[in-house]
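We modelled the chain as a single entity of 342 amino acids. Its sequence is:
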Amino acid sequence: MRTFTTSDFDFALPPELIAQHPAPERSGSRLLDGSGAAPVDRRFTDLPALLREGDLLVFNDTQVVKARLFGEKPSGGKLELLIERVLPDGTVAAHMKVSKKPRAGTVLRMAGGFEAELLGRWPEPQGPLFHLRLSSDAYALMAAHGHVPLPPYVTHADTAEDESRYQTVFAKNPGAVAAPTAALHFDDALLAAIDARGARRACVTLHVGAGTFQPVKTESLADHVMHRERYHVPPETVQAIADCRARGGRVVAVGTTSVRTLESWAASGEPSGETGIFITPGFDLKVVDALITNFHLPRSTLMMLVSAFAGYERVMALYAHAVQQRYRFFSYGDAMWLLRSA
């Protein structure tokens, strides 16, 4: 087994291939079929034909919250918060973009007329996030005054289109600051076609954090500190996977977040918790047989996960094909269909 470095997962991407807006229809994107010896260019609506009766699709039902908030310090200096998570006591942990970091005890005036008191850092005194207490319920304030937390490579301010389309049609558990993007391609008509094919559906929850967009900054993969995200595998999904195995079906993860959730559960035995799982080539995958995934950032942990799943050489060749054929990349882009490498 070769030793991989972060540079192995780099690739050249023309900027114009980074999708800034979703396709006019959710299921109208392209689908690169990487399951055979040669890549096949398909439409996403072809997906049901790639499924078998008895397969189980596992979706991430997290809901993206409007986690981006704007405000100012008492001095008048502008700031931006990105709420990473709402903590059990109602306080929040957030990223802060500001010219000079305020001190603990500072009360920030937020757009919308509410306040945020800076309590310190999180999860420890020198932690990477800021710990704040908002003057009212965090979820209600985000819903009323927040903005859609679009990825850093989407260059426009959020719009009504983003509020609708940077969210899956089955999102129900609020807590994510990034969408499970492979699932954005599914609409009610496509889900009905999947059901008609005889495939089954189940859900897990992983609240995607902003760390999902961060490139790996260490050249050695062993030196990278993975971000942590909260997950839950409900009992009915555990049973659905057991039933799928019993009938000889395949477990199809819709997105890397579903892979992270299922493999975290398999590795820990815990159906709920926090995961910092780092899936790189050589990782022994236990649950997922097939994967639907968008195209990911160079040098990212998600590139490494997909390479671990389908094979490094295959994935890099598929990415080269996608660039040549002008596929649309990242959150609002096109998708791939992959089978687990032997």
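As a brief sanity check on the tokenised model: The chain has eight helices and 17 strands. Helices lie at 47-50, 138-145, 160-165, 188-197, 235-247, 256-268, 301-310, 312-324.
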